[in-house]
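Q&A FORM
Asked by: J.P.
Topic: structure of Protein translocase subunit SecY

PROVIDED:
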Amino acid sequence: MKKFIDTLQNIWKIEELRNKILLTLGLLFIYRVGSNVPLPGVDINSLSQLQDQTGSGLMGLLNAFTGGAFANASILALGIMPYISASIVIQLLGLAVPSIQKLQKDGESGRQKITQMTRYLTIAICLVQAPSYVTNLMAQGVGYVISDQLFWFLSITTLVAGTIFAMWLGERITDRGIGNGISILIMVGIIASFPISIVQEFTARLEGGAGGLITIVLELAAFYLVVMFAIGLTQAVRRVPLQYAARNAAGGGQAGRPLGREYLPLRVNASGVMPIIFAQAIMFIPVTVAQFAQTEGDSWVITYFSDFTGFWYNLVFAVLIIGFTYFYTAIQVNTNNIADDLKRNGGFVPGVKPGRATAEYLDEILSRITLPGAILLALLAILPAFAMQLNMTTQWAQFYGGTSLLIIVGVILDTLMQIESYLLNRHYDGLMKSGRLKGRSTANVM
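REPLIED BY: S.T.
REPLY: Here is the structure written out as tokens.
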């Protein structure tokens, strides 16, 4: 406890770090206030139907990512998700469009142009999603005290402006605060429902006669183990040894520094949370198509793919996650570029020829470690289904794995890694008693 207090004092002593943390907390407070401000003209007494509809499914996922703003008909109802969607589209286009590939290799100038393209695409996605959201509001019977045309125009304009504002907040946190701003906004939205989930679970267990205090203790112990499992999956790496010819020729290092051993870390879960997001989006397609078709032969599709705790739903879900893990890992980790960079800098893997042979060697290692990583990721994604089978409340069970837990773990590790860097650079003790934190630069959200 004393070490923890000393660490907090050290953090407060570093003026730059203190200002960054305070700025981040201030911007997050503004974001949470905005999430509870309703759209102009909405009758807040008529939101109960919308809140019931967003209890599960795709809308439940969107509501969790926006911290309840989606179900509150808030000015930030779309949240930061259109920006995330635009970022994913730009990443996928980078595989097929040569001009975007060139921008990705142009350093800082290329990054700025891609960021600008992502912003424009975000607005375009908002202009599609905002009318759909307003249409759903009106279909659900959400009341409003102004005319239809005025409510339509004001709501769409406000929703687009709200997403742009959330995007601006995220970029300010990234530039002047601590951590990845976009990822932190999503994490804060998810954590916002965590206290309510715990209270609901405690109430159900203690008052409902469903196990009592012993069951709650066992659930908390299981939750701790699941969190440790998620942290291990996030941080697990396969270290490939490297050598540099120039440093060896210099007699053990450059500028009088010892050579030491260097490694290339290949992550077991290089794709992060994206395979789960892709798989969840795909899983909602059969039900949506079947509902629009409205034929008797498609009733089994609705039955199986609407049951989130069912065997077939989770089997298909797990298979999709494994497939998307390989797909997104291939996008994220380009072994040819890694091999070229090593060759250009005089680096090589001992016993492997530089260039193409190195790329093939790294690709083989990546293929081997991706399989267990994909299986473990799929297992983590379907853990909430097992939790619901044990009669846990739906909201509490969602924190036992899946997208929510991985985002929380990834963002916290990334933020703590940045704080630790400030401490170590100022010659203070780090956050860990031994070793260093291994975070993820983008928390795997984008």
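FOLLOW-UP: The longest strand covers residues 237-244.
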